[in-house]
């Protein structure tokens, strides 16, 4: 078969002058050039002429006395490159959208023509009969374009009315990131839609068994044997923990609702035993750490052990990971236990009135894990479009959660001094502190997102956030004391020397800050993500308290200052190869949303329910607001 194809190819590519056959068209064209009498390519150094471009380029490269890189003016331009600069440099496929899928999922600027223009500016282009004087081609300069449009696909999907669209937006975005980094090859970028992730959701959430292959599974039997990473318990211990989980949920249901609750429904032991299995534990733990962890990095992955972690936290991770497989049958079955899991976690003694008294509040490792579990369950239940559930989260669970975080002093928590030794104890102390810092930071950001999504006054004041900001990801995720010390020495500091309160004050200050301002010197993209959450809290609070017309100027100035910092920090991080993760990739969308809220409030545009000063139980009004203001 191959021989016949080769013979056919030889018959197709044949020289008209000497009847010589060639395998490819490019070989034929190079050969035909040797038959021409024109000697149109001239070496600028020795005046030697060539009819073939490849021979001329090879000669000039050796003949150039100073090693200058020289190319000859093309006789006929080829097809113009359509890929963006980043995809062109990485030599990967590009969908040519503005921005393209790969740049959007990596959270980087998508530009066209800049790479080509910068490359051309370093070349000396020589035409036929010209000397070696530099000639810069201007054909590409007119076609260059920098994309200024802000993509809002993630924000639109996040606010789409209906159940579990928020978790879908997060998981789809994580799936895209895996695909662009080479972890998933089953989907091509050209097949992705450019609006609202709709087509990609269908591909990702296909409930057929083959959909598990996208996550590294081939069948339910093989899935039980697959080893993903260190997050695996021994089978016997895992089975015991699953039994404890079923027993705890059943006991809580009987205690709170009895056996015939019309609100919660009967608790099915058989269904619980079918859902809470060792195989699903492995599957859902993997789903959480590979799909949602970057959006809520409050758990220390290197030391996470499902055999020893507290049961509430393991339950929350289990249920969070189940959303990775939505809407499969097992995910729908796990959804039946969301409400009782919420009750189980928030009935913990840490959320009691006595524990919330600051004079009696105590901080233990188990308490922090319960707080982490509560935050995960709040996020899970926020996905539910049931108005009763959302009102319970808004009016009961969120105030209780924030009060407990405040009572434990986490909003003002700071790192303790750490000695310079690569000691396991020092590393453990750092992890102990950093987990608390991160829990407080993400509690604040969740409160801010709740305020924006549902038109609420924020529960956390910016002035409360006087604790440390989270450290760099590489430091927190170091898997040994020695690696921790290496990362610490590379960055010289474990935590940033400023708080969110100081950073927000810097953005809102009336005076123009100097270039050597201490806050400006140490700013990073995670800090700016928290800062834009602070600004959106200020904007929503001003709107809800009729202060927006007067506060619009201050907030606009802070937003402009934030955007300038973001552009500068992003450019620097891209140059050093640092990739944005989680909500950092969508911080500019949040910035755009705050701008639109301020603009609408300043112009007193009250069209639509979202700009009213009443709390909401649905994201439908916010979704409509975004669509109306989308460029």
UniProtKB/TrEMBL annotation:
Pfam families xref list: Fungal_trans (PF04082), Zn_clus (PF00172)
Indicate whether Repeat appears among the record's keywords: yes
The record's section on InterPro entries has: VerF-like (IPR051059), XnlR_reg_dom (IPR007219), Zn2-C6_fun-type_DNA-bd_sf (IPR036864), Zn2Cys6_DnaBD (IPR001138), Znf_C2H2_sf (IPR036236), Znf_C2H2_type (IPR013087)
One GO MF term, please?
DNA-binding transcription factor activity, RNA polymerase II-specific
**Entries under PROSITE patterns matching the protein:** ZINC_FINGER_C2H2_1, ZINC_FINGER_C2H2_2, ZN2_CY6_FUNGAL_1, ZN2_CY6_FUNGAL_2
**Gene Ontology CC annotations of this record:** chromatin; nucleus
Q: Which PANTHER family match?
A: MIP31509P, TRANSCRIPTION FACTOR WITH C2H2 AND ZN(2)-CYS(6) DNA BINDING DOMAIN (EUROFUNG)
Its name, as the record gives it, is C2H2 finger domain protein
């Amino acid at each position: 078969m191959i021989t016949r194809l080769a013979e056919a190819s030889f018959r197709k590519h044949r020289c008209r002058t000497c009847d010589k056959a060639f395998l490819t068209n490019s070989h034929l064209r190079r050969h035909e050039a040797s038959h021409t009498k024109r000697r149109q390519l001239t070496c600028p150094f020795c005046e030697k002429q060539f009819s073939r471009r490849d021979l001329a380029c090879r000669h000039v490269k050796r003949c150039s006395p100073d090693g200058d890189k020289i190319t000859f003016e093309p006789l006929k331009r080829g097809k113009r490159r359509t890929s963006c600069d980043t995809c062109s440099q990485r030599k990967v496929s590009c969908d040519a959208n503005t921005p393209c899928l790969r740049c959007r999922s990596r959270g980087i600027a998508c530009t066209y023509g800049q790479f080509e223009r910068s490359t051309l500016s370093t070349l000396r282009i020589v035409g036929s009969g010209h000397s070696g004087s530099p000639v810069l081609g201007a054909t590409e300069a007119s076609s260059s374009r920098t994309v200024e449009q802000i993509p809002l696909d993630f924000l639109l999907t996040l606010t789409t009315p209906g159940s579990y669209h928020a978790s879908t937006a997060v998981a789809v975005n994580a799936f895209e990131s895996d695909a662009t980094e080479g972890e998933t090859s089953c989907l091509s970028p050209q097949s992705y839609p450019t609006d609202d992730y709709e087509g990609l959701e269908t591909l990702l959430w296909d409930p057929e068994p083959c959909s598990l292959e996208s996550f590294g599974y081939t069948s339910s039997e093989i899935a039980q044997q697959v080893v993903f990473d260190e997050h695996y318990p021994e089978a016997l211990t895992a089975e015991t923990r699953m039994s404890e989980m079923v027993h705890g949920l059943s006991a809580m249901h009987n205690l709170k609702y009895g056996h015939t609750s019309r609100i919660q429904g009967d608790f099915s032991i058989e269904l619980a035993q079918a859902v809470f299995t060792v195989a699903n534990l492995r599957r859902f733990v993997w789903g959480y750490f590979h799909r949602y962890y970057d959006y809520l990095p409050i758990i220390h992955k290197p030391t996470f052990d499902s055999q020893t972690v507290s049961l509430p936290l393991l339950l929350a991770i289990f249920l969070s990971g189940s959303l990775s497989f939505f809407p499969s049958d097992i995910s729908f079955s796990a959804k039946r236990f969301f409400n009782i899991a919420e009750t189980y976690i928030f009935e913990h003694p840490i959320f009691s009135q006595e524990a919330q008294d600051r004079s009696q509040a105590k901080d233990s490792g188990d308490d922090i894990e319960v707080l982490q579990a509560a935050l995960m369950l709040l996020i899970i239940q926020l996905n539910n479009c049931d108005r009763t559930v959302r009102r319970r989260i808004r009016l009961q669970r969120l105030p209780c959660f924030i009060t407990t975080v405040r009572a434990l002093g986490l909003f003002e928590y700071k790192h303790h001094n750490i000695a310079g030794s690569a000691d396991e104890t020092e590393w453990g102390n750092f992890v102990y502190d950093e987990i608390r810092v991160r829990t407080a930071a993400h509690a604040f950001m969740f409160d801010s997102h709740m305020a924006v999504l549902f038109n609420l006054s924020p529960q956390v004041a910016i002035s409360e956030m006087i604790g440390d900001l989270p450290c760099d990801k590489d430091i927190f995720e170091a898997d040994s004391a020695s690696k921790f010390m290496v990362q610490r020495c590379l960055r010289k500091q474990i935590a940033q020397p400023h708080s969110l309160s100081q950073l927000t004050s810097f953005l809102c200050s009336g005076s123009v800050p100097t270039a050597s301002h201490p806050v400006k010197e140490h700013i990073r993209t995670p800090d700016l993500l928290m800062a834009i959450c602070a600004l959106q809290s200020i904007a929503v609070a001003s709107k809800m308290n009729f202060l927006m017309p007067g506060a619009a100027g201050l907030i606009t100035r802070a937003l402009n200052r934030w955007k300038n910092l973001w552009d500068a920090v992003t450019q620097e991080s891209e140059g050093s190869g640092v990739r944005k993760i989680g909500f950092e990739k969508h911080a500019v969308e949040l910035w755009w949303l705050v701008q639109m809220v301020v603009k609408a409030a300043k112009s007193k545009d009250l069209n639509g329910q979202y700009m009213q000063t009443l709390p909401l139980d649905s994201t439908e009004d916010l979704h409509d607001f975004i669509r109306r203001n989308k460029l």
